[in-house]
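User: Can you recover a sequence for this backbone? Please restate the input before giving your answer.

Assistant: Of course. Working from this structure:
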């Protein structure tokens, strides 16, 4: 069996991606490079059912040598290997917070030091492209630039790369953490009236005035004080 060790790593890290909550069912994909060849998750097979011999061995032009038909996103992986000769692995996730940020199409700041190991600038989001097309890879390469090992894919997910599968997976996990922090610190704050998390005043039930008494809610303190002074004077 060709590239047996790398194929075993693809099986392991595919299941690890599932265990870490970075994807669901058959979503996402992982690959590793060996010179002019790569090994990549087969198409539409649940991670728990993939065996090393099922993992696809192919060249960067799309010619399959062994294994099942490759993931539909093999062009994304091949584009990154061609553009960045130093990398040895790619991890593509559909993790929740990364997908939320990708839906917004906005960059993600480096909020946690872990992500700073893999990115020198905020994580960029590639323009939308139909899954499985060469444009996905072209957008990812441009979004990575020469500074980052992580990029978002508009309305799709996240892609991370590294010298090996361990590093690519670590970069993906670090990016998901920063995406979650960005959501909690900035987007989630819109539901709050203050940074302290107090509920908006409009959400508080208005106090009902007692029968026979004038409502005082919303009046300045000096107005309320002056009215009470008048009442004392009349007694």
């Amino acid at each position: 069996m060709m590239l047996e060790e790398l194929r075993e790593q693809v099986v392991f890290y595919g299941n690890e991606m599932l265990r870490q909550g970075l994807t669901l069912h058959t979503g996402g994909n992982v690959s590793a490079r060996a010179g002019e060849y790569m090994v990549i998750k087969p198409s539409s097979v649940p991670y728990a059912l993939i065996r090393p011999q099922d993992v696809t061995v192919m060249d960067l032009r799309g010619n399959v040598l062994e294994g099942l038909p490759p993931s539909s996103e093999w062009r994304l992986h091949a584009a990154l290997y061609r553009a960045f000769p130093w990398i040895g692995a790619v991890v593509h996730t559909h993790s929740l917070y990364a997908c939320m940020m990708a839906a917004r199409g906005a960059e993600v700041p480096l909020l946690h030091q872990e992500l700073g190991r893999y990115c020198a600038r905020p994580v960029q989001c590639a323009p939308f492209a139909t899954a499985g097309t060469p444009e996905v890879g072209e957008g990812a390469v441009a979004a990575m630039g020469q500074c980052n090992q992580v990029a978002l894919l508009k309305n799709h997910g996240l892609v991370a790369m590294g010298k090996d599968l361990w590093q690519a997976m670590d970069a993906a996990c670090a990016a998901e953490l920063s995406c979650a922090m960005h959501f909690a610190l900035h987007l989630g704050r819109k539901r709050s009236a203050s940074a302290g998390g107090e509920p908006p005043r409009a959400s508080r039930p208005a106090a009902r005035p007692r029968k026979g008494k004038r409502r005082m809610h919303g009046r300045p303190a000096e107005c309320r004080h002056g009215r009470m002074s008048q009442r004392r004077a009349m007694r």
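That completes the design. The CA atoms of residues 108 and 224 lie 49 Å apart.
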